[in-house]
């Protein structure tokens, strides 16, 4: 029994082993089967379709190839490959692509393609008709990293390639016969490359050659490629390259530069540990002509350019065997040796450098070619001028010396047929000696007819002083270049001490401006008798920070000071921004002339008050935080002609905002303005830039007195508008508009607000209490219908305006009775009604009521579009009494009549105002029961071209209202609205002509009757 049990126990073990063997055999068989089937599937029609489907579903375009074959030993081969993007801009073709990848490298996370051959590749890029991408912003990483390529090894060969690029203006360039070989190896191993191609510009028979070869061994890095540790050599040869042929490639890179001329060059260089060791370059160009956006429309031209460079690194020194640059207007040369790297002037002087260099520039040619770049005055012709300089280092008595000078001389020109010239050359000189660890500035300075700057001492104790006459500076250099739009005079002086250390540059001293005066061509001026500035600052270049011990500016208009501040010089600064500014005793009355001159402050507005403020600027996230809790204006007074002065004993401002200058974002977290008559209890504003859009959102809770607001805003409101009343409103808005098109802000604005007043006066119209609902949605303004009292009558209005329209017009939404029984005043007649009928001009006294039914009204929102005003409607006037009307007096004098206490009526008259002209066919003025009819055109420029028909017939009868009469007497009305004149002379001529016609007609009737 035990033997049987033992046999039974052993049986399962044998079965398990047998199953494992069978399973392993099956798995191996399946793997082998898959290995053999993968190439078969990939090479089949279904495999081709499957791969093309996956590719085309994941790209913006269509890929195709005629054949695809794969073998574990033969590699991958693709024939008749093609790709076309969906926009018709890019086309790629290749006769054959063959590669032998090392499949095992995939399991190590990298790709080794082995030998890869691309036969007859063709790349075509067509940008014809495509818009430029200039101005579009892209976000790039700020931290540099090494380049990590997934392909670790590849032997790439390109045979007979071709690249054709057509730019936006249909200009085409072609790179043909491209033959290239790249032997890519992992970091630490040598990679070699070579490129040979021809460049052909469409429409030209000549071809240029470009050759490049090199061998590079990148240093070993943890990830990817890096210049550190890289060694090798690179050479480039370019033969007779037509620079216009580069235009399509520059357009492809969206570089706005256009170049003419022919370029040839030969450049070779050695690289050791990531540094350029030896450079030999020979560059020649003919008929060079360069222009572009950076040159502001100028052209940099030279018939010949020759550059010869031979540099060789010897340990820590860079030996300049030759450096020669020659153009039509520049000759520069240098030779000797300088430190390959140095962080300070001290390191440069302590080295075994020996340098001699010079340059000579024809200033007349350069300024004539590039007037906008250098700010040359319009109409200026520079006829002569030379900018030259030298620099040299030498060792004498064991001391290192550096001498140099720059001189601008013989600068002459003409403007408006007037000869101008510098009185004397402008010279800068330097004579510096290095002695052990000390630098001695024997002489450093600048001399000119307008001033002098001198520096002497050592690097630890450098003294400087400067004296500049601002009027002479402007009269000398300002003859040739635009120094500013304002005429200036005064004396600027400065003196102080400085120290130049290895890690710090410090300066302290004072400067003063005496008898400063700025004035504009319009006669506006501002002056300051004395302004003094004292300062103590220190820069730490290695830490990229500027430490401000103190800066204090004192002038008659106030004081500004900064204490113990830190200002970062760039993004790599070791310390954040910490800056507090204090302004004390700032006299707004004395600031006002500068605000009028420099900041377009209204010159009619008077200002008084003393301001005091402490505000801080600190680093916050990616930008800065600006904060003030202590800004006050004492005894503020604002005066504007014909307005009640705005006065406030104290105005306080609290402000807290975050600003990111790089992203151009603003976040005003708190804004409070408190004064007796104007309050912003809570204000918030946010401006955020995302991609190419700017989003603006704001909300303000306000309390204000219209009379105070009206005084402050009077320069920007219609003249004569007066508003009164207390208001408490909340104003909120949002807007998203293209960042580069700020003029589209209103076109995309959204807001809803109720505005109103207790009373208002404008052009003799006295409005009663009014509330108006305004809504702007997507740039469409809608003023909801409202009614109010005006001059004891009724005024109704509703309108809309689309800010996207050009010009933007405020339009009525439909016919409405805009005015009903509004009492007429002298001001109403003088400012409004005289443009409807000149009978209202120059009246001494007027009364009556007017009504107006409006069919259409369109008013441009910008004053310069005055001719776009359009008004169509019907006006009538009742119970009209006029005294002192010049035109009415002329009419009555013709018939010997008088109208003391006479009431007049203007019957309903339809008129049209378009293109700056108001016209109607018949406006009847009833003088009692006698009609006077007006017809013609009145211009907004006050011109008249009208006819007045009197209530008298040619037969001597008097016409009555409502009766039919014989032909009445008509008189031309000429002159202007302010001085209308009845042309009696033409009246007599026309009446005599009519009588002759009547007599002739009667004679003919008798003759043939």
Please write out the topology.
Elements: H1 2-43, H2 45-56, E1 61-64, E2 67-71, E3 75-85, E4 90-99, E5 111-119, E6 122-126, E7 151-166, E8 172-184, E9 191-201, E10 207-217, E11 231-242, H3 247-252, E12 257-272, E13 275-292, E14 299-314, E15 317-326, E16 330-339, H4 345-350, E17 354-362, H5 363-369, E18 381-396, E19 399-415, E20 418-421, E21 426-435, E22 438-448, E23 451-458, E24 462-469, H6 470-477, E25 487-500, E26 505-519, E27 525-540, E28 545-555, E29 558-568, E30 578-587, H7 588-598, E31 606-620, E32 623-639, E33 646-660, E34 665-674, E35 678-690, E36 693-705, H8 706-712, E37 722-724, E38 726-738, E39 749-757, E40 759-762, E41 765-767, E42 770-777, E43 780-790, E44 793-802, E45 809-812, E46 816-823, H9 826-831, E47 845-860, E48 870-883, H10 886-895, E49 904-914, E50 917-927, E51 930-939, E52 944-953, E53 968-975, E54 980-982, H11 984-1008
Parallel strand pairs: 5-7, 6-7
Antiparallel strand pairs: 1-3, 2-3, 3-4, 4-5, 4-6, 7-8, 8-9, 9-10, 10-11, 11-12, 12-13, 13-14, 14-15, 15-16, 16-17, 17-18, 18-19, 19-20, 19-21, 21-22, 22-23, 23-24, 24-25, 25-26, 26-27, 27-28, 28-29, 29-30, 30-31, 31-32, 32-33, 33-34, 34-35, 35-36, 36-38, 37-40, 38-39, 39-42, 40-41, 42-43, ...
């Amino acid at each position: 029994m035990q033997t049987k049990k033992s046999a039974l126990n052993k049986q399962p073990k044998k079965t398990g082993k047998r199953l494992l063997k069978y399973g392993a055999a099956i798995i191996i068989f399946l793997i082998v089967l898959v290995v053999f089937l993968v190439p078969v599937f990939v090479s089949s029609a279904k495999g081709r379709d499957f791969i093309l489907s996956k590719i085309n579903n994941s790209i913006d375009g269509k890929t195709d190839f005629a054949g695809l074959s794969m073998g574990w030993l033969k590699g991958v081969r693709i024939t008749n490959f093609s790709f076309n993007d969906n926009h018709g801009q890019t086309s790629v073709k290749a006769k054959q692509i063959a590669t032998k990848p090392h499949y095992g490298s995939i399991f190590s996370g990298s790709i080794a393609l082995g030998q890869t051959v691309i036969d007859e590749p063709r790349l075509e890029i067509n940008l014809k008709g495509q818009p430029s991408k200039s101005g579009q912003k892209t976000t790039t990483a700020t931290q540099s990293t090494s380049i990590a390529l997934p392909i670790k090894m590849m032997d790439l060969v390109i045979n007979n390639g071709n690249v054709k690029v057509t730019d936006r203006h249909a200009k085409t360039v072609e790179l043909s016969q491209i033959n290239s070989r790249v032997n890519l190896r992992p970091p630490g191993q040598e990679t070699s490359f070579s490129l040979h191609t021809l460049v052909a510009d469409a429409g030209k028979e000549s071809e240029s050659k470009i050759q490049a070869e090199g061998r590079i061994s990148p240093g070993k890095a943890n990830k990817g490629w890096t210049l550190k540790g890289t060694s090798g050599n690179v050479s480039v040869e370019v033969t007779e390259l037509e620079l216009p042929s580069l235009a399509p490639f520059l357009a492809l890179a969206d570089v706005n530069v256009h170049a003419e001329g022919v370029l040839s060059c030969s450049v070779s260089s050695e690289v050791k540990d990531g540094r350029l060791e030896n450079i030999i370059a020979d560059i020649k160009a003919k008929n060079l002509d360069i222009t572009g956006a950076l040159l502001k429309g100028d052209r940099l031209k030279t018939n010949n350019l020759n550059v010869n460079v031979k540099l060789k690194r010897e340990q820590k020194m860079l030996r300049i065997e030759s450096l020669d640059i020659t153009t039509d207007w520049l000759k520069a040369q240098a030779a000797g040796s300088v430190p390959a790297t140095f962080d300070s002037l001290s390191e440069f002087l302590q080295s075994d450098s020996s340098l001699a260099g010079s340059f000579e520039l024809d200033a007349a040619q350069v300024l004539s070619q590039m007037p906008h770049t250098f700010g040359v005055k319009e109409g200026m012709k520079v006829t002569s001028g030379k900018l030259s300089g030298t620099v040299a280092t030498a060792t004498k008595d064991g001391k290192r010396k550096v001498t140099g000078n720059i001189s601008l001389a013989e600068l002459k020109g003409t403007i408006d047929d007037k000869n101008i010239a510098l009185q004397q050359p402008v010279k800068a000189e330097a004579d510096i000696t290095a002695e052990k660890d000390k630098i001695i500035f024997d002489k450093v300075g600048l001399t000119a007819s307008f001033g002098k700057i001198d520096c002497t001492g050592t690097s630890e104790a450098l003294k400087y002083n400067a004296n500049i006459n601002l009027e002479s500076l402007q009269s000398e250099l300002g003859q040739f270049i635009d120094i500013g739009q304002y005429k200036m005079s005064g004396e600027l002086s400065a003196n102080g001490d400085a120290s130049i250390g290895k890690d710090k540059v410090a300066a302290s001293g004072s400067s003063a401006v005496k008898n400063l005066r700025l004035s504009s061509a319009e006669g506006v001026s501002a002056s300051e008798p004395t302004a003094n500035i004292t300062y103590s600052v220190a820069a730490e270049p290695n830490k990229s920070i500027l430490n401000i011990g103190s800066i204090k500016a004192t002038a008659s208009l106030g004081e500004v000071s900064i204490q113990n501040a830190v200002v970062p010089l760039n993004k790599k600064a070791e310390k954040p921004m910490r800056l507090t500014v204090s302004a004390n005793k700032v006299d707004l009355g004395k600031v006002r002339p500068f605000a009028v001159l420099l900041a377009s402050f209204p010159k009619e507005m008077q200002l008084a008050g003393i301001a005091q403020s402490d505000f801080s600027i600190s680093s916050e996230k990616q930008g800065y935080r600006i904060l003030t809790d202590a800004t006050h204006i004492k005894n503020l007074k604002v005066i504007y002609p014909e307005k009640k002065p705005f006065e406030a004993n104290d105005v306080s401002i609290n402000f807290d905002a975050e600003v990111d200058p790089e992203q151009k974002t603003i976040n005003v977290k708190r804004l409070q303005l408190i004064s007796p008559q104007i309050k912003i209890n809570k204000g918030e504003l946010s401006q955020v830039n995302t991609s190419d859009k700017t989003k603006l959102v704001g909300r303000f809770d306000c309390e204000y007195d219209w009379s105070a607001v009206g005084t402050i805003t009077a320069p920007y409101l219609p003249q004569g508008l007066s508003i009164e009343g207390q208001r408490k409103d909340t104003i909120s808005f949002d807007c998203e508009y293209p960042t580069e098109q700020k003029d589209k802000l209103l076109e995309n604005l959204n807001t809803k607000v109720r505005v109103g007043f207790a009373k208002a006066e404008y052009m003799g119209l006295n409005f009663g209490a009014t509330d108006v609902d305004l809504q702007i949605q997507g740039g469409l303004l809608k003023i909801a219908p409202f009614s109010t009292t005006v001059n004891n009558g009724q005024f109704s209005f509703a309108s809309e305006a689309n800010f996207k329209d050009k010009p933007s017009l405020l339009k009525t939404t439909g016919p409405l009775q805009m005015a009903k029984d509004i009492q007429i005043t002298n001001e109403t007649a003088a400012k409004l009604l005289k443009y409807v009928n000149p009978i209202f001009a120059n009246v001494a006294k007027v009364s009556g009521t007017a009504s107006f039914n409006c069919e259409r009204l369109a008013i441009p929102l910008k004053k310069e579009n005055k001719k776009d005003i359009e008004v169509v409607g019907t006006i009538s006037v009742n119970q009209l009494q006029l005294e002192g009307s010049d035109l009415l007096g002329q009419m009555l004098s013709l018939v010997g009549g008088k109208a003391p206490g006479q009431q007049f009526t203007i019957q309903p008259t339809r008129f049209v105002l378009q293109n700056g002209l108001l016209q109607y066919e018949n406006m009847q003025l009833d003088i009692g029961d006698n009609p006077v009819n007006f017809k013609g055109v009145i211009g907004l420029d006050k011109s008249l071209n009208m006819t007045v028909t009197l209530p008298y017939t040619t037969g001597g009868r008097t016409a009555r209202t409502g009766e039919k009469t014989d032909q009445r007497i008509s008189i031309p009305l000429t002159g202007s609205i302010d001085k209308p004149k009845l042309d009696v002379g033409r009246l007599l001529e026309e009446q005599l002509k009519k009588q002759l016609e009547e007599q002739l007609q009667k004679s003919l009737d008798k003759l043939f009757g």
